[in-house]
């Protein structure tokens, strides 16, 4: 019997190393060493919960956990997809769905005193509805335990899973996020299990189901996309009614993942932000370290205020 720990990404183990350029100074961050971060980690272990902060090796974990912000990842820690950019463990999920998870998540939200919570999940292609029922249960439990807490969901694409997006929309999260991740040309290599226009359609379906829900989507840059392609994604998002766009630098989790083609400069992010705002988004977050859930609480307050401002114009 081997003493080796199971591989997080067995499908990538035999791939050659992908070498990225050296990180520039503007992309370096500190590890989570604060007392507050240790408290968040302890609570997650105690409640048998997972966070995308840890599982996806988010560069902002130190900052977020210091301020007791965490993005909860439901439906286990094993994803049925194998995207080239993502550090979440891949494989066949073992065991039954944890029916206590929604209650444990809600209790953690209350214990942390969160005013805004982000709930995401692994892809669960093995489930008939892709796990939509668990999102609904979590929303309902959080509403009961912390009624003043706004709720943001960051969902998978529910490809071939029926009306999962509409089911979740009926539970009325405040923000419905689904990331397009990259430009359509790069999907076969970066996000092979997904389809760009199906993901775009999901965002439109949520808007059609409930126009009052804020919709949000994001992409990574530095994977070889062209500026014109990024601008086209902006137009596609706006055509689907997306309110909030995020743009961040792709960072390679391991040498077996897709390499960084280049590090996009802060000035280029400023340009993307200005162009996206001109296209009508209520909010745009575009910096090298921008991630879907980074500053989500602050962003939600600004998002709501901007909608009210435009309604008053």
UniProtKB/TrEMBL annotation:
GO terms for molecular function: 4 iron, 4 sulfur cluster binding; lipoate synthase activity; metal ion binding. Its main location: cytoplasm. GO terms for biological process: protein lipoylation. Belongs to the radical SAM superfamily. Lipoyl synthase family. It comes from Paramagnetospirillum marisnigri. Residues 1-22 are annotated as: Disordered. The gene is lipA. It is found in: Cytoplasm. [4Fe-4S] cluster 2 binds at residues 79, 83, 86. Its cofactor is [4Fe-4S] cluster. NCBIfam families: lipA, PRK05481.1, PRK12928.1. Binds 2 [4Fe-4S] clusters per subunit. One cluster is coordinated with 3 cysteines and an exchangeable S-adenosyl-L-methionine. InterPro entries: Aldolase_TIM (IPR013785), Elp3/MiaA/NifB-like_rSAM (IPR006638), LIAS_N (IPR031691), Lipoyl_synth (IPR003698), rSAM (IPR007197), rSAM_sf (IPR058240). Residues 65-282 form the Radical SAM core domain. This is Lipoyl synthase. Its EC number is 2.8.1.8. One of its GO terms (cellular component) is cytoplasm. [4Fe-4S] cluster 1 binds at residues 53, 58, 64, 293. It comes from the Bacteria. It is an enzyme of class 2 (transferase). It catalyses: [[Fe-S] cluster scaffold protein carrying a second [4Fe-4S](2+) cluster] + N(6)-octanoyl-L-lysyl-[protein] + 2 oxidized [2Fe-2S]-[ferredoxin] + 2 S-adenosyl-L-methionine + 4 H(+) = [[Fe-S] cluster scaffold protein] + N(6)-[(R)-dihydrolipoyl]-L-lysyl-[protein] + 4 Fe(3+) + 2 hydrogen sulfide + 2 5'-deoxyadenosine + 2 L-methionine + 2 reduced [2Fe-2S]-[ferredoxin]. Keywords: 4Fe-4S, Cytoplasm, Iron, Iron-sulfur, Metal-binding, S-adenosyl-L-methionine, Transferase. Residues 1-17 have a biased composition (Basic and acidic residues). Pathway: Protein modification; protein lipoylation via endogenous pathway; protein N(6)-(lipoyl)lysine from octanoyl-[acyl-carrier-protein]: step 2/2.
